[in-house]
Amino acid sequence: MLVKKRARFAYLMILPSMVVITLLTLVPLLDGLIVSIQSQDLARPDPTRFVGLAHYSRALIEDEDFWSSLGRTLVWTVGSVVGAYCLALFLALLVNIDIQGRKFFRALFLLPWVVPEVSTALLWKWLYGDEFGILNFILKSLGMIDSPVLWLADPALAMPSVIAVQIWKLYPVMFIVLLAALQNVPKELHEAATIDGANSRQRFLYITLPFIRGTSVIITLLASIWSFQNFDIIYLLTGGGPAGATKVLATLMYQKAFWGSEMGYAAAIGVLMLVVLLLISIAYLFAYKVQKD
Amino acid sequence: MSLLQYPVLKKMRVVPLSGTYRRAFFLLMVYSLLLVATTVILFPIFWMASSSLKPSGELFARDLTMLPIHWTLENYQNVWVNTKFPIYFWNSFKVAALSTICSVLIAMYAAYAIARIEFVGRYTYGLVLLITQMFPHILLVIPLYLLIQRMSMLNSHFALFLAYTAFSLPFTVWLLRGFFEAIPAELEEAAEIDGASMLTTFHKIILPLAGPGLAAVTMFSFIRAWNEFLFALVFLSSRELFTMPIGLASFQEEFTFRWDLIMAGAGIITLPVLLLFLLMQRFIVQGLLGGALKG
Asked: Which of A38, A70, A115, A250 lies closest to B136 in space, CA to CA?
């Protein structure tokens, strides 16, 4: 009786959250699937018309933009996640050393995480500026370049330039999580290994790495999901340009939906993004399991 | 025995001496690496601050200087007086604060139920929350836009408020659950024996103890709503309703090449969250590690 009463109380407590999440996340999710097989045209008397898988075949077969944007999205995701992971691990290893002021450095290294995306994008745009950008100014003062580098306007450089910004924004969360994992490595293990004559490289490979492997897998997977769907940084820095050099699926979808008014097609791109993300996650976790066994 | 110990003793006599040198060298290395890393990583933030405090003549000069030659707050004043920035600021604050309050209020009950009460579907609901939290929000932008359009609520703060509340809920529940679980169960049992109802126990005993947790999730939720860009961009069309992120982004077209205004605006958006973060850093780090990612 008491158990039943407690359970009823529990349902009452989770009810409001359930209503909000159902109405504003789960139902729209299904709605997205439905929209992706419809043609949305508000000018017609029947604004929605069933078109079957037409949008999907358009994305996968006719529209070259889709595959090239997918390719760029993968470059962007892998580039920023690998870069951010290396930077985060390097900084976490540094801050994990028992020294004065490590808490201070830990706080400093987290700062980019709180800087709003819009500020991040605009301040990097200012750093990258060709005429009055500080980056070009420094390189010129050092005599490394003669004419300004067009960081964001040169199609060959635009992708690496936006990836650098994403690395800057992405690494702090990875850093703090890796640092926590590093602090769980028992000190005795390192001491014992040192006595046994292991050098620091061996200690890192055989003691530290196994301890942070699980955390690394989870955090890189999460970071991949975040980067894959990221819209703000690219939209604000290059808008997908120059000449489509940084056009990723997120900006393609936005463009189709809100400039081209092709809601149905954009929704199909969204669903395909979700499929790709699921495939990546499954492949990733599978590879991790195989490697572990 | 004594023979075996001898080499060890001999070693111990030598090692500490060279050890101190090695240690000093090692520390020097570590600190210089830390210094380089800090300089490189914080430079963009420094440059934003420095640029925003320079008169515009110094921003667009042949020779750029690291620090302003003439320190000035005129860029901030210009943004605040000559643009709609105060309206954007207020809009951002309103939407972020209301959605945060609402989502924390809803989330704390759900989190407590999941943390403490046995019920059918408890595990499943936790899983649903975890998945919705990881779910890429950009995929919701089209269906939510259409939904809001059908309800004729486009171009309103209420639409943004709904979206932000929904987005922060899963995360907030998930985080708070961790904080509630850390509170000893004996406290509730004692209160229950004394005849307090479950709701009273929760309000009078658990909530006050979960103060740091509530502070952390409030921060998180607020910062996320404050920074949010995409949904504000899609939902809002009239300038009077813009939040700061899209207001600032619109400066790019409205005031082309006015980097003095843009940097000061970026400073105004960034400063509150930066201060909040520095004040609450300990809780935030705890929260990040506690519920958010480890699950």
From this structure: A250
Nearest to B267 by CA among B102, B44, B66: B44
Is residue A29 assigned to a domain?
A: no
**Considering the domain boundaries, does residue A15 fall inside one?**
no
Between chains, do B198 and A9 touch, taking CB under 8 Å as contact?
yes
Q: Which domain holds residue A194?
A: 54-292
Instruction: Note the Cα B195 to chain centre separation in Å.
Output: 40
Between CA B209 and CA B220 the distance in angstroms is 19
Pick the closest to residue B160 from B107, B216, B251, B237 (CA basis).
B237
CB contacts, 8 Å: B281 with chain A: 107, 110
Q: CB of B84 within 8 A of CB of B98? A: no
Q: B83-292, what's its fold?
A: MetI-like fold (1.10.3720)
Extract the tokens encoding B193: 């024996």
Chain B environment of A20 (Cβ under 8 Å): 106, 165-166, 169
For the whole model, what pTM was predicted? Answer: 0.88
**In this structure, what token pair is assigned to residue A176?**
């703090």
Q: The CATH number of the domain where A204 resides is what?
A: 1.10.3720.10
Spans in chain A with pLDDT lower than 50: none
Whether B14 has a pLDDT exceeding 50, the answer reads no
